[in-house]
Design brief:
Mean pLDDT: 87
Distance between the termini: 34 Å
Structural class: alpha+beta
Strand content: 15-25%
Largest sheet: 5 strands, antiparallel
Shape: elongated
Length: 233
């Protein structure tokens, strides 16, 4: 059954069972947790690479005030900031601040270039993990909206951490068990079999996530093939 309430403990319970240790005598939560987080990292990176639907996000409107021409990371001293879970920018739209008009897409430029000041921010440019616009700024405050790839999952801190991704249970259980079998149990043959099961689960997960977005029947990805699709306004 799919759920967004999947916990790290549920994954590690299954992982221990896959290693014939359902009581978690050897494969305790504490022992498994670092390997679960490695599995989460791999899953997130794969979802980002595949541009899978759980990673697609649209930001709320962000106001770029008069005299400003950039949006910085959350830890940066300068305002405004882009969302903390942003990994890659897909597209940016703009409108007059407070207007309620539709967002009009801005073109992306590979290099920063100054244009005369106008009503528009004109373009966007990604540099040093900062979103930059026409350095001349705009004549009035602008609202921008970012379409972006986000980091879909956070790392687990205990067995009570909620992972919160539908259909992640199978992959994370098999992958955690594979990593534990290899690095703790030093059992390469069991690890190989579990890793194959994890790859199959990941293929199914990506196929399910991408079906609805494409609105077509999804063919299975070739083993370890890279797939990328990019969208925009």
């Amino acid at each position: 059954m799919s759920t967004t309430n999947l916990t790290a403990g549920e994954v590690m319970d299954r992982s221990a069972a896959l290693m014939n240790d359902p009581q978690k005598t050897d494969y305790t939560y504490a022992a498994q947790l670092p390997y679960l987080n490695m599995a989460i990292d791999e899953l997130v990176e794969n979802l980002e690479e595949s541009n899978s639907s759980p990673t697609n996000m649209t930001s709320p409107p962000i106001v770029v005030p008069v005299g400003s021409y950039k949006i910085t990371p959350p830890e940066h001293v300068d305002l405004p900031h882009y969302p903390s879970d942003l990994v890659e920018v897909q597209g940016i739209g703009e409108r007059a601040s407070g207007s309620g008009d539709p967002f009009i897409p801005l073109a992306r430029r590979d290099f920063l270039q100054a244009f005369p000041i106008s009503q528009s921010l004109i373009f966007w440019h990604w540099e040093d993990q900062i979103i930059k616009f026409n350095p001349s700024g705009a004549l009035g405050p602008r609202e921008i909206q970012i379409q972006y790839v986000r980091g879909a999952l956070s790392l687990a801190t205990s067995e009570f951490t909620v992972i919160g991704l539908i259909n992640a249970r199978s992959y994370l259980s098999y992958k955690t068990a594979a990593l534990c079998s290899f690095y703790i149990g030093e059992n390469p043959s069991r690890a190989e079999g579990l890793n194959d099961q994890a790859e199959n689960a990941l293929e199914r997960l990506n196929g399910i996530n991408n079906k609805g977005r494409q609105q077509i029947m999804t063919r299975h990805r070739p083993f370890r093939a890279a797939y990328k699709a990019r969208g925009g306004f």
